[in-house]
Every structure is written in structure tokens, then in C-alpha cells.
Write a structure and sequence with these properties.
Blueprint (H helix, E strand, L loop, with lengths): L6 E3 L10 E3 L7 E5 L6 H10 L2 E4 L10 E6 L6 H7 L4 E3 L18 E3 L6 E3 L1
Parallel strand pairs: 3-4, 3-5, 5-6, 6-7
Antiparallel strand pairs: 1-2, 1-8
Length: 123
């Protein structure tokens, strides 16, 4: 039996996409924070509510297939599309919409933006 729980993550003010339902698993336990300042508060809340493992993606790396959700802070064109391209659920704390060379991979069912701590709720 799994100890993991689900959360729903909705677009925040000016955001786009989602809502996403995130449920870590034994095979995909990581709440991957790629925000450059340690574990972002949004990633910490997702980990706390789901039982997933908060992971600092700037200090270390992990295989894409171990990531339950990637929390990013990209307002540009790089990370915003990399994780969706790899079929990883992606939460951007910036209010972005599909743009850049990887825009075709950024779909509402895998990406949500403008997310703050209050946009993460237990399912």
C-alpha cells in the first residue's frame, strides 16, 4: 500500500494550463525543484501534502523517469519546455504560456504556470 497522496495544482494569477493532479509513486517519488534557490516553497508544499521527496535539481540530477513533478521558475524558453518535452508534469512559478522552440510540448494536461503555494491543494 502506498503512503502517497494526491494534490491538485491550478494556475495562479495570470497563469496558464492545468489543473494538474500530482500523485508520486514508488517509481516516481521526486518533487524536483529547479529554481536555483534550494527547495522552492511550492515544491516543499507538494512534497509535504503528497509524501513525495523534495529534490533540489540544481544541486544534483535525477533521471526524468523518477520525477513526479518538476517545479521551475522559468519565464523564458528553456526549462519551460524541457520537462514537458520529456513528458514530466511541470509547474512554473512564473505566469508563462507556451512559447519558444519547445512550445509544441507545453500542453494544459502536463503544464501549469503562475503557481503559488495557495494554488496547491489536497485532492
Amino acid at each position: 500500500m502506498s503512503d502517497y497522496k494526491s494534490v491538485t495544482i491550478s494556475a495562479g494569477r495570470g497563469g496558464w494550463g492545468g489543473p494538474l493532479t500530482i500523485t508520486p509513486t514508488a517509481d516516481k517519488p521526486l518533487i524536483y525543484s529547479v529554481t536555483g534557490g534550494g527547495i522552492h516553497p511550492v515544491a516543499a508544499k507538494i512534497a509535504e501534502l503528497t509524501g513525495g521527496e523534495a529534490f533540489d535539481g540544481f544541486k544534483s540530477s535525477a533521471p526524468f523517469d523518477k520525477i513526479a513533478v518538476a517545479v521551475i521558475d522559468c519565464g523564458g524558453t528553456a526549462r519551460v519546455g524541457v520537462y514537458p518535452m520529456k513528458k514530466v508534469m511541470t509547474v512554473d512559478v512564473h505566469a508563462t504560456s507556451p512559447s519558444g522552440p519547445l512550445a509544441s510540448f507545453i500542453k494544459e494536461d502536463i503544464f501549469v504556470s503562475g503557481v503559488g503555494v495557495g494554488d496547491v491543494v489536497e485532492k
